[in-house]
Amino acid sequence: MAIYDDNNIFAKILKGEIPCDKVYEDDFVLAFNDITPKAPVHILLIPKGKYVSIDDFGANASAAEVKGFYAALAKIVQEKGIAETGFRSIANTGDDGGQEVPHFHVHILGGKPIGQMIS
Ligand code: 5GP
Fold it and tell me: Which domains occur in the chain, in start order?
């Protein structure tokens, strides 16, 4: 598992060094709109803790952080009106997973049929 890079772009967003279009924030998470949206709703949900990837988060986050993360996801999809219509959540991981930013994040995509899982 990669070592966490304190200068990755999402770390800079969390530190307030780079702006973001914030959707939701609480003690555990920050959520903001993706800069290059691939759907009418395209939100990135990130933990405030320093986790490189979903497996790092699963192995090392506290129960409160894990609960906080998924509770926030549930609130966001409810608030955005996509809980009923459906959405896709994606966590690209590592080189083969196509992860560009090495701070764990889940893409939340909705607002239209998202299409095939892998094309
Ligand atoms: P990944 O490929 O790591 O799963 O996804 C990284 C995502 O972060 C991409 O969808 C990309 O558009 C988004 N992204 C990269 N830089 C920024 C940024 O500075 N601000 C925002 N809001 N999104 C970003």
Answer: 9-110 (3.30.428.10)
